[in-house]
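FIELD: query
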Amino acid sequence: MRQIINHFTDDDLYKLSMCCAVIDNFPRAMVKYTFVDRNDTVYPEGFADELNRQIEALESVTVTQEELDFMKRKCYYIPNWFYPYMKGFRFSKEWVKAWQDEEGKLHLEIEGYWANTILLEVKLLAIISELYYIMTGQTGKLDYKSYYDKTYHKAERLLEAGCVYSDFGTRRRASFEAEDVVVKAMVDCYNSKKWEGKFVGTSNVYLAMKYDVTPVGTMAHEFICAIAAMFGPQMANHEAMNAWRHTFRGALGTYLYDSFGWHLFSLNFSEDFANLFKGLRIDSGDNYEQLQKIVEKYKSLGIDPLTKQVIFSNALDTDRAIEIHHYAKNYCQPSFGIGTHFTNDFDQVTPMNIVIKLIAAKITESWDFYNDTCKISEDKGKHTGKPEVIKRYMETIHFKE
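FIELD: result
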């Protein structure tokens, strides 16, 4: 079996930016993650064995000088001390346990220092997704020529509508080649003429380098969830925003607010944070309802919401993004991060619905216990974590479905 991940920066930018913030603020923190397949997929026999071989192959993946030079040029906000860390970084198969049960279901457990294991999630999900199609014989069905044309048409529609958007699709892509085709089609379309909209770039740092576009991304829920495990959920957003400010000094200023619901976040989102952060990202709940909550919050702080960016990234497709754009442009500066719809929208295969979520953390290895954490989504039924932990957190923060 060929090696699926061959480039260190074949990863989403937000994993690297979070890694930098973790080292800067929580250098001794340790974490645990688990794998969740929302479709309850039965994987082919021997899948976990091949996955373990792919994980071991990650130990040979190191960053190149070309990748470092590109990030130094494009990612001005990353402090220079982070690049020698990247150069010396090595993955270890010891951080991951993967196996199948008697029914063929896949299980993964990850444990280690947060600064190390944080760089596994996107790569592992991309491996699992591509490996599944290879081992089930579906890879041969992927017609990349027609996919280029299909993607080019999506780009035309988004750009004509005035949408500002990015590719967020590494985690659940059908293959590396699929995302490569997507970014090429998006770049070709955007460069073909002047448009009302804008293709901003891609979350995938390697493909951003290949096509000389902007790598896009800030943070994921795990940053806030780990802090909640270490300090408690009530002030997790406050501590996370402070930590982000400490590392990036106002850059990368789009905050992902929904780890524990809008209400708790809004209590932590004081005027200084509202002025510091360029905007917010909506990743769960009803897009229109969430937008109105954001607008009202900014107004209550005396801030014109039209001066703020709102990024929409909740299960978007082309039609939905255009529809939201026409509505949201009257209230804010909307932009869109679109994932699976870009990188796994083949007629012949069904996208996987897989995630890796942080479930526990401790602030230092000297602690002899972890604290559990979870994610409480604005989408009912999409909370992630142990049921008893979710229940405890919801009671703690007075969360109402």
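FIELD: remark
The chain has 17 helices and twelve strands.
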